[in-house]
TrEMBL record:
CDD domains: NUDIX_ADPRase_Nudt5_UGPPase_Nudt14. It comes from [Ruminococcus] lactaris. It holds the Pfam family NUDIX. This is NUDIX hydrolase. GO terms for molecular function: hydrolase activity. The keyword Disulfide bond does not apply.
Amino acid sequence: MDSIEKYLELSRKCPELFAQSEELPLVLEPKELYAFAQKSGKRIGIVYESHYHFMVVDVVCAKDGSTFAYERLMNRVMGGAVVIVPYYRGKYILLRQYRHALRAYQYGFPRGFGEEGISAKENAGKELLEELGVKAEKWKGLGKIVPDSGALSTSAEVFLAELSEAPQMIREEEIVGHIALDWEQLGEWIRDGKITDGFTLAAYAKVSLQK
């Protein structure tokens, strides 16, 4: 299948991601999509896919009747992502991890993509074990966040996880270590710009409302 055929197939499989709106209606008629691609010289539809993502280029209608391309990134597994706030003996655990997109290191709470066939809580437990080598004694769901609605179709479930034992030193997936901060220190690091990860900042806001 070409990129437009794949796109139309995805629209039938996941109609919630192709919901129509008065604000920016989607063009979903095959002839119109092919005509736009030919006239504009742009690739339309699913232009790239990996094990984790689809890069999608939609054709949308402006209020003046003109059409234009608008891209977005979708998780391949539509169940969403998870963010885990690990808590152990009065301190919150953050990973130090190299982020390829930034070409730099960041501190942040563990997080991961959704996985088919398991619940968000089960996925959170799996990520916690993989990235800190421990299990949680208690879990508390804190609701959803949407990290970047300008480009991503992704939401993430946030969980507070009280650990049953001290985290281990795991070195994989660009993880180079972790740090434990109490609540006051965590706020200071955010204030001083040492923590900039959007998932972590949103999860911090969720936890702060529980206090």
